[in-house]
Structures are given as C-alpha cells and as structure tokens.
Amino acid sequence: MAPHPAAGLADDQAAPATGPDAPRAPRRRLWKVLIGIGVGLLVLVVLALLWFFLGRDKARPLGQEEALTIFRAGDGGSSDSAGRPPAGVYAATGTGTESVGLPGFDEPLGPDTPVTVTHGDGGCFTYRIDSNSHHWRSWTFCPTETATFSLAGMEGWTARKAPGLDIETLVTYTCERPPDFLWTGAATGDTRTGACTGTSDMDDSVTADAVGIEVLDVGTIPVGGRSVDVVHVRSSETFSRDQTGSEVDEWWLDATTGLPVKVLIDARIQGGVSDYTESLALELTTLTPAT
Fold first, then answer.
1. Residue 205 in domain
2. How many domains does the chain have?
3. Residues with Cβ < 8 Å from 51, sequence gap 6 or more?
4. pTM of full prediction above 0.90
C-alpha cells in the first residue's frame, strides 16, 4: 500500500487540509471586513451629501420692502422722469428657473420679482429685476441719435452658497454698438442690430454678443388695471468667443416711457466657469413705483 502523503512529517508539518471540509474562516473574515468598509464609506458619502445639500443657502424671493431698502441706500439719480420711467421699485410677479451647471443647484425664480428703475446721466435709465435673493439682472437704456432708447449695457449677478462652497459671479456687458429697442414710428417687422462685449469677475473670459431686434407687434396690454400702449419686440443674442450659446427675450415696452412692463427671458450659454440657463416670465403689477 502506498504511504500516506503526510507520512514521516511532524505534526506541525502536516499537509494542509483540502476538499469541502477545508477551513474557510480567513476568507470569510476578509469579505466581512471589505463589506464593512464599503458600507461605512457609503454611509459617509450619504452623510456628506446630506450635509452639503441640506446645509446650503437656498434662494428666497426678494420682497418689495427689501428691494426698496436697496433702492433707498443707492443713488436713484434724477427725479426728472420726462421721457423715461419714474425711478423707484415696481411690484412684479415672475416664474422661472436658473441653472449654473452644478447638479442639485437649480433654483426657482419668483414669484415676487420686484423691478427697480434708477436714472442715469443723459436721459438713461437702468431696469433691474431681482428674481430671488441669489440672482438679479439689469439693463441700461439710453437715448441715441437713432432711437428713443438703445441698450447701452447689461449686468447679471448670481450666487450659490453651501458648506465649503461660496460662489458669486458678476457678469458685465458693454455695448460698443448699442442695439435700438424703441424708436419713433416702430412698426411690425422692423429690425435693428447691435453688438456688445461681456466680461466676468470670476475669470478672464471675454464673450462677444451679437444682438438683433425685431418688432413683433404694436398694441395695448393691461397693467395694474390700466391699458398701456406698447411696442412688442424680440431681442435675439448670439454669443461667441469664450462663451457660446444664445438668449432670446421678448419685451413689451411702454411706448411713451420705454418701461418694460412684461418680459420673457430664455438664455442658454455654454463655456466660461460653467454652463448657464435661465428662463423667466415677468409682468409688472403696477405702473406707480414705491420710493
């Protein structure tokens, strides 16, 4: 009979057991350790996400009184409203959303969206929409040789805040060729063009903005219980250079003062710090501003 493979070996040198009865405790312990580590990491990730998203500063509607405080603290400019909208804070309602390209950081706009008008030199006025506590935009309109009001420049401010994250961006556009928005004798189908250049305080990017204006119709709409003569125009912007994309807005302009009494905004921009989208539908609910 052939000798057993372990024959002649000392007890502590016996061949390891094989087959279904072999001990598997070390392998099982390893798997338990790996599973425990995985579960622990998953719990930490979930807790970190909850801490990040639940702890972030959420946008809130900016109330009329808060907008009025900001207006009073600044320089509203001349009280002379001849040929332009009276300065002050107009009540308005709006609905929409804004996205800065960060997952989980899309924010609603409105429903309270106070509009502030301030006066500048040379018959200019600035129209600012406070869409919420994290976002406002403004447009400055000035008289020119070719128009009652042309777009001289724009600004937009956006913020996002969370534990470990604090982002504020101010974008400024200056129009070297101001596009006409409102002019004498404007009729359906009329078009004008212009060009602006944008910069951001977050980086060195430069954005070229080609602007086209088209008169869609001329008529009247109700505002705050009154009928207002308006010129309804569409502004189409095409962005290039460091940012690309487009913005198509519609404006219902008071034919007498140039005050936008209704605005639709649809912006879609790629590049720069992050992609950006905004949609907003806004309507004034009064033609008499608070001061």
1. yes
2. 1
3. 163
4. no
